[in-house]
Amino acid sequence: MNYWLMKSEPSVFGIEQLAKAKNSTTGWDGVRNFQARNYMREMKKGDLVFFYHSSCEIPGIAGVATVQREAYPDPTQFDKKHDHYDEASDPEQPRWDMVDVKLVRKFDRVIALDELRKHADGKLKDMIVLKRGNRLSITPVTKSEWSFIESLE
C-alpha cells in the first residue's frame, strides 16, 4: 500500500462535499501538473490519501480517503465549456488523468499546516508538502509520516 496527500481548496471541493457525494466517492479531476499527474498514475486501488485543504483560512489535513479507481483519462480535458479544458490534449493519447477517491473519515479537527511545520525538523523533515516552494496538489507520503500524522489526530 502507498500513501498520498491530495490538496483541494474547500471553496471549490472540500471534505464536506466528498462526504455528501454519492457513496462518499468522487473523481479527482482537474490535475494539470505533469508531476502531480505522474504521482496519480502510480496510485493503486486501496492506497490511502490525506485530504488536505489548501488556500483557506486554516490549511491542513482534514481527513482520510482511499483510492477507489486507478488513473483513467480525465474527461474535463476535452470539454470546451469546462474550466479544465486543454486544447492540446488528444483523445487518442489523453494528457491528463484522474482517480476516484472515497472518504474514509473526517478528522475531528484539521491538522493545520502550522502544526505539521512544527515537526519539519523531526519526524516530518522529508515530507514533500512541507518543502519550501512545493505547490504540487498530489504528493507521496511515507508510511512513517503517515503514522506520525495519524498520531496527531
From TrEMBL:
Gene3D superfamilies: ph1033 like domains (3.10.590.10). Keywords: Phosphoprotein. Transmembrane segments: none annotated. Residues 2-151 form the EVE domain. It holds the Pfam family EVE. This is EVE domain-containing protein.
